[in-house]
Amino acid sequence: MKWLFDLDNTLYSADSGMFDYLNERINIFVAKKFNLDSEATANLRKRYIKEYCSTLLGLKAEFKIDPEEYLLFVHNINVNEFIKREERLKNLLLSLPGEKLVITNSPLFHAENVLKTLGIYEIFSGIYDIKFMDYLGKPYTTSIKKVILSANINIKDSIFIDDSFENVISAKYLGFKAIFVRKVENFKDYYEEVLFPEIRRILNEN
Questions:
Q1: Distance CA 56, CA 53 (A)
Q2: Last residue of a domain, one of 60, 75, 90
Q3: Helix (H, G, I), strand (E, B), or coil: what is residue 179?
């Protein structure tokens, strides 16, 4: 069995504020790059998400920006300000049968920083980042298929975990068992009330 984990807002809670901060840095990058005000920036990004599934792909397609410049600016942050070592998460991951992989639309250096801060870096046998996926990323099935081939994944014996509904739909289309990790109202503990129950549920189904 192989487990394909998303990174941001999946291996840590969206309540950490880190993903919101990364999103704000995207706004700053776009506004400065093209001298736009906040409303124009928001409208441009909204169109890119609709047409390309990501701001990066829109900028790359229409303005030929260097994706590495964009990724470095957006993700050059101190992750320790948002997350900390999580022993319960580590113990849960160690208890899961099979190999664990990360598949993320973030760059490798950010993924490594997050996993090391959480204290779970050594648990994962591979990290497949946005550059590996030719800057397309999820939910493009071509990106997920590239990971499947590289990691020699048997789809029928693997589980895909993500906080994006679109990404989960793509994974299920390819034949994965998938877990949609979504924020629920009034939960007190992300791991015990959101992530852990979803993983336990799908394990009990096998």
A1: 9
A2: 75
A3: strand
Residues spanned by the domain of 48: 18-75
Question: pLDDT of 83-119, one tens digit each?
Answer: 999 999 999 999 999 999 999 999 999 999 999 999 9
Residue range 145-178, pLDDT digits in tens: 999 999 999 999 999 999 999 999 999 999 999 9
Q: Of 36, 54, 75, which residue sits at a domain end?
A: 75
Question: Which amino acid, one-letter code, is at 46?
Answer: K
DSSP characters over 159-172: EEEES-HHHHHHHH
* Structural domain count of the chain: 2
The token duo for 77 is: 């942050």
What six digits make up the tokens of 167? 């990404």
The interaxial angle of helices 108-118 and 67-75, nearest 10 deg, is 20
Domain shared by 168 and 87, yes or no: yes
